[in-house]
Amino acid sequence: MDHEPTVRDFGDVTLADAGVAKLRALCSALGYDAFSIHRASCLFRKLAVGWGGRPAQAKPWPSDVTDDHSPFELSIAIDGDLPEIRFLVEAQGEAPSLRSNWEAGLRVNERLAAEHGVPMDRFAAVADLFAVGPRSETFGIWHAVCLQPGREPRFKVYLNPRAKGADQSAFVLETAMTRLRMETALRNIPPLGPHNRFFSLDLAANPRARVKIYAAHPNATPEEVEAAVAMVPGPGPGRAAAFCRAMAGSNGPFDDRPVFTCLSFCENASAPTSATVYFPVRAYAEHDGVVRDRILRFVESPKAAVMYRSALNAAASHRELDTGVGLQTYVSIRLEPDCDRFTVYFSPELHGSASSVRRITAGASSSVGR
Q1: Is the peptide bond before 253 cis (omega within 30 degrees of 0)?
Q2: pLDDT per position as a tens digit, 47-68
Q3: 43-46 contacts: CB < 8 A, separation 24 or more?
Q4: Cβ contacts of residue 355 below 8 Å, gap of 6+?
Q5: Which residues are CB-contacts of 33 (< 8 A; sequence separation ≥ 6)?
Q6: Which of 6, 116, 191, 203 fits a 20 to 30 Å CA distance from 168?
Q7: 233-236, long-range: CB < 8 A, 24+ apart
Q8: Predicted confidence band at 4 (pLDDT cuts at 50, 70, 90)?
């Protein structure tokens, strides 16, 4: 197997090299076998379209995937004995722009279908609604890969409800849900509007394949976040609010970056099947050590805590946690009756932590607050 750079070798390597190094470190820390690590690395390089060969330290095109505008993000999801590692990427054109990046993303879809048999029927049914146009903003299409040892990779796409402009986002989402035979569920959720920022599709051909709608909640209190997911059966009332308080270390309101919620739907369901709360921890903590301590106090499973510590140590190999904030961008909790699934999202920090990026850009990065 070819030598892969370590996470400390970023001075003269490519973006794909840097991303693979971080991905391999995360996989190794969580006990992935050699085959799973190799497959993850190959998939990452395959999806690093348009930017994989660029120098890791070159000034990036302003991707909205991360605070420092790197075009990829890593995350870990834990809800049992087997952690899941995911990566999110934005394909880019040779000369990056919203239009060229959208077209590059379409080429990624074609390659996934041809080489991995990934079904694109559901994407094809709604693609025109989300295609980049004159009024588009921030992004067009992102791809996510979910990886577990011994299992086939799973793929998702993220699309922008504001592709036709913020004032058309409700129409875009309602039309998409109707085309995907999920219009009945719309009657049992809050009205769609401009605060709906992301729309995702599982690229799978089975009845459990999900559609997810993400909404921002500017200046929300814990109680308002709780109300936004109250229509979905969960582990009991108050869990979403308690999670927000634990991640913020306060009672809010959360008036820096907004909290996000996500409602998940399956075909022919009359209501959302699950809900997830995403808390932007890097906006409400002095440094990443504070974020770590809050997560460990909230997580109830000792085994989950061990897995989280291992992943964090791998992701933080380039700096001490108390020297900045932004390595951990979001922590999410999926609310289900039998268990919580928590996910931690890691920025590659190739161009500094969120705190340093904020000083440079005066808060202009990652405009949608994701």
Answers
A1: yes
A2: 999 999 999 989 899 999 999 9
A3: 43/145, 43/147, 43/153, 44/16, 44/19, 44/20, 44/72, 44/87, 44/89, 44/145, 45/16, 45/20, 46/111, 46/115
A4: 287, 324, 325, 326
A5: 149
A6: 203
A7: 233/336, 233/337, 234/275, 234/335, 234/336, 234/337, 235/335, 235/336, 235/337, 235/338, 235/339, 235/340
A8: low
